[in-house]
Every structure is written in structure tokens, then in C-alpha cells.
Amino acid sequence: MKKKLICLLVAGALPGVALADSTSAQIKALRAELNELHKEVKSLKSELAAKPAGTAQAAVAAAPADASSPDYGKAPAVLTNDDLGEMKQEIASQQLKVDSLSDAANTGPIAGLSITGYLDPTYIYNRAASTSSFLFANHESNYNYFNSTFGDLYLDIKKTFGVGPMAPSAEVTLMPNRGNGITLLSNERGNIGNNILNTAVITVPVSGTTTLVGGLMSSFGGYEVQQSNQMLTLTHNLLYDFSDPGAYVGLGVNYSPDGSNWAWKFMLGNEQARTAGSVVTTGTNAFGDPITTSNRVPSFTARVDYTKSSALDIGGSINIGRQTLAQSTDSAGNLVYGPGGGASSPFGTYFFGEADATYTLADVQYNAELDYGQQQHAAFNGGLAQWYGLSLLAHRKFNAPVVGRMGVTLRYDVLVDQKNGGGGGGVVLNGNGMDPFNGFGIDSDCLAMSKANGGVGFECKGATRQDAAVDLLFYPTQQITVKVEYRHDWANRHVFLRNDGSYAKSNDLLGTQLIYSF
Which residue has the higher pLDDT, 138 or 393? Predict the structure, then answer.
């Protein structure tokens, strides 16, 4: 009887081994069970050795079974040496399986592997465009403030090679909708390949304070992150969308001195959003083949963070490099550069700097960011593009009747991009000096007046953009977050295109979002 019970216990552990994750905690539990079985077998073996041969069998044979006795069926189990040998073989077999699981967890192909992410279907109403629809895995390639990095699938795949702080790792994130790859990354010819790769980073610690990184990385600018499940609003702020730099391909160093509150990041790479150094056509030779020039100037970016306390982090970043301008042909077929075709060079020196702060204490969070950027030849009229902006955010979580855990977020942004008609940074103007979907560029009335007088709008100023957003956040489970946002955007010029073809100074969005994290 006891032999059967022990064997059932051992066999019963097998489904758990097959179905559960090979974690160290589960392996330790299995080993503990096996140790207990070893002890019990050893105890039974000692008891059997202490009894004279045939004593137990004779006692059982001499005492006839009395079915009416209350002790009927409760006689002690009788084990032989053959029984104990069989049990030892079965336990050894289970020990071998546990050792195999432990080896796979530490050195196998799934050791150190993690896959996380989220899905965030979103519903947006846009007053100016007179549209309302669900956004999820939408194949629209244009990046707009009302259709950016939400309504998407995000996957983070990370593999750590070894254990401890000195273990190197490789991490890849995929974002098939409007991540870095689908709308921002371009090759040397400026073509966007609709690549679902969002970031891909190799991390190699070289000491306790210094780490080497390389690959495709997001920029260092700003307090806001890309991932919807880490944001406190549904839409991004104006600085994230149109001021902060994009992604970089390059090599970098992260440095955090021992016992210090400072952390530094440095990186040297291609110009932002380029997988290779850009090549620009400047003309053709006698045989019709292109004459080209390349942007051989790398971009340098750096960031510093000072952790003043467990609640307050103050940081800032800079970026210096050279950016490639848009290329087109004029009415005579000549190559021209810049959004308005007035730039004297296909490239423009780029500088960006920002300072940001994050204060988090219990259920309260505050964020602030101040930006400044400039780019030569990138404005609409071919002159210097210059922009500066501010973003402020306040968030608080609390418990409410009926709905339970929830939060409220308020955000205000302003981005000034007026000089020489606007442009530069993340502001992409069309040939008329306007971005009518995002509300940047020159005023439609000024453009009409300029064209009536034979001009093209080069004398017009760009727009100053602002927005205010209010978000309600609900947390029904640990995996699910629901957001509801109202956002009002406005500018000092008529730059928002309406569905009837007219232009307005403001627009409104109303959206809701369901985020499921895993």
C-alpha cells in the first residue's frame, strides 16, 4: 500500500513538470519532494532490515483476518527488498528528469528569454476631419498626432546570456503599425520599407559602471516613452511627436559611477531615422547616370540624469549632427531641396537640446520638459528652421466608488515653429509650406494672398501650436488599462484642414483605448 502511494506521488508530479514553466522555484520544489522520497525509502529500508526474515510474513499468516474488527484493513504495509529496489529506480528516473529541467532553465535555448508586450485597440473621433473609427493595426503609414503609436501590437523579445549584472543581452521590439520602422526609418535613398522592427539593441557590460550598447535605439530626448502601457495619456505630447529626435542606428556607452546619483549616456550613429548614410542626387553626367553626394557626418547624442531622491529625477539631452533635406524637382525639372525648394544645400546642420524632470511619489506624478532645436536650410523658405516648446503633465491615482482604482491626467503643450515659415525637426511641410493634418506651417490666408501677388508664401510665418488634454484611466485588472481622452488643439493661424476643404485654427479629439499587457 505504501509503495503504491509513494509511486503515485512521484507520477503525479510529472504533469506539473510538463506543463509548468521551467523556473528555478518549481525545480527547487521538485527537488525537495525527491529528497523527502529518498528519506522515506531510507527509513523503510532500515525498518525492513531491523526485522528478522519471515517475521512479518509469519505474523500476518498466523493472524486470521477478522472483517468485523475496527482495525480491519489497517495492517502495516509489508515491503520486500525487491519493492524498495523498484522504488529507488523510479525515484532515480524522476531525479534525472528534474536535472534535465534544471539544465535547460540555466543553459538551454529558453534560458534568460522573456517575451512581453501589449495590444491597445483605440477608438478616435476627429472633429476637423469628421472621422470616427477604431484604430488597430492600421496600415496608414503617415505619422499624425491623432494616429501615432497607439492602436497597435507591441512585442518585446529579450534574451539574456547568463545571470547577474555582467550578463550581456539582446533585445528586439516589434511594432508593426507606426513604430520607428514603419514610418520613420529610411534607407540611404530615403525610401521607407515598412519595416516592423522598432528597436534592436545589444547590451554588453564591461564593468560594474560601464555598458556598451549598439543597434537601433530610440532617442534620449524627453520624459515621455513610446509604449502605450507606460503612458499616462492616450495621445503623445507635441514635443514627443514633432520636436524630439527619432530613432538612431549606432554605438553607445552608458556610464553610472559607483555610489553616485548621476547616469550618463553617449552615442555616435547615423543621422536620426536612417539605417544607412543618406545619398542625395545632385545631377546627372553625360550618360544620364546620377551624380551623388553623401551625408558622411555622424550624429552625436548624449544624455545625463541626476536622481536627486527616490521621487525626483532631473535630466537632459543634446543632439548634434547633419540632416538630409527633402529633395524634389521644380517646374523646369531642376533638383531643389527643402520643403519649399529654396534651400541652397541638400543637408542642414542640426542641433537639439532639452531638459526634463519627473517627480513620482505614491499615487502622484508630475512631468515637465523644455525643448529647443534648430536646423539649417530646413525652413519652408530655405532659411534656418528654429523651434522651442514646453510640456507639462500632472497625474494622480485614487480609488473611486463602483469603478475602483482609477487615475486622472492633465497635460498642456506648446510648440513654437514660426521662423522662416516653420519646419525642421519632426515637422514635415508640403510644397505649400503647410502640414494641414497636424496644424503646422504657414497660414492658408497668407498663402492665398502671397500667390495672388505672384509669390509662393516665403514671406509668411509658421504656426505656434498648443494643446490641452484630459485623460481618465481605469485599472480593472493588473493586465488591463482603459483610457478615455479629450484633447483640444489650437494654433495662432489657420492651419487645420477641415473635411470641407476649409482651414481652421483649432481641432478636437475624443478617444478611448483598451490596453492589455502580457
Answer: 393
Is residue 214 within a helix (H) or strand (E), and if so which, with residue range?
strand 210-217
Per-residue pLDDT of 114-128, as tens digits, reads 999 999 999 999 999
Q: How far is it, in rounded angstroms, from Cα 266 to Cα 243?
A: 20
Taking the C-alpha atoms of residue 173 and residue 158, their distance in angstroms, rounded to an integer, is 8
**Rounded distance between C-alpha atoms, residue 363 and residue 361, angstroms:** 6
Determine the Cα angle at 226 with ends 149 and 406, to 5°.
Answer: 90
**Contact yes or no for 440/461 (Cβ under 8 A):** no
Instruction: Tell me the pLDDT tens digit for each residue of 258-277.
Output: 989 999 999 999 999 898 88
**Greatest extent of the chain over all pairs of C-alpha atoms, in Å:** 125
Q: In the prediction, which pLDDT does 463 show?
A: 98
Name the residue with cell 521662423: 419
Q: Label residues 259-286 b or e (16+ Cβ within 10 Å = b).
A: eeeebebbbebbbbbbbeebbbeeeeee
Cβ–Cβ contacts within 10 Å for residue 391, how many? Answer: 27
Distance, in Å, from the CA atom of 439 to the CA atom of 417, rounded to the nearest integer, reads 11
**Whole-angstrom Cα distance, residue 491 to residue 462?**
10
Q: Which is nearest to 290 in space by CA: 188, 387, 368, 360? A: 188
Closest CA to 205 of 163, 152, 237: 163
**pLDDT band at residue 17 under the 50/70/90 scheme:** very low
Percent of the chain having pLDDT more than 90?
67
Q: Mind listing the pLDDT tens digit for each residue in 30-54? A: 677 767 766 776 776 666 566 555 5
Buried b (16+ CB within 10 A) or exposed e, 476-486: eeeeebebebe
Distances from the Cα of 281 to the Cαs of 185, 284, 337, 375, 405, in angstroms? 19, 8, 11, 21, 57
Task: Using the predicted structure, report yes or no on whether residue 112 has a pLDDT greater than 80.
Answer: yes
**SS3 (DSSP) at 484:** strand
Mean pLDDT of 184-193: 71
- d(CA 149, CA 336) in angstroms, rounded, equals 32
State the distance between the two ends of the chain, measured CA to CA, in whole angstroms. Answer: 46
320 in Cβ contact with 350 (< 8 Å): yes
What is the per-residue pLDDT for 154?
Answer: 96
